[in-house]
Amino acid sequence: MFKSKRWNIVFLLSLGGAINYMDRSAFAIAAPMFANDLQLTPGELGIIFSSFSIGYALFNFIGGYASDRFGPKLVFAVSMAFWSFFCGLIGLAMGFASMLVIRVLFGAGEGPFAATLNKMVNNWFPRREIGSAIGVATAGNPLGGAVAGSIMGTLVLVIGWRMAFVAIALLGFVWLAFWLKIAKDRPEQHPSISPEELALIQQGQQGDDEEIDESSLPLSFYIKQPTILATAFAFFGLNYILFFFLSWFPSYLSTSQHLSLKDMSIVSVIPWLLGSIGMALGGYLCDCLVRKTGNPLLSRKIVLVVCLGASAIFVICVGNVSSATSAVTLMACGIFFLYLSATTYWGILQDTVARKNMGAVGGVVHATANVAGILGPIVTGYIIQWTGAYNTAFFIAGGVAVLGAISVAIFVKPLRLKDTKYVSVIGHE
Question: Quick one: three-class SS letters along 73-119?
Answer without folding.
Answer: HHHHHHHHHHHHHHHHHHHHCCCHHHHHHHHHHHHHHHCCHHHHHHH
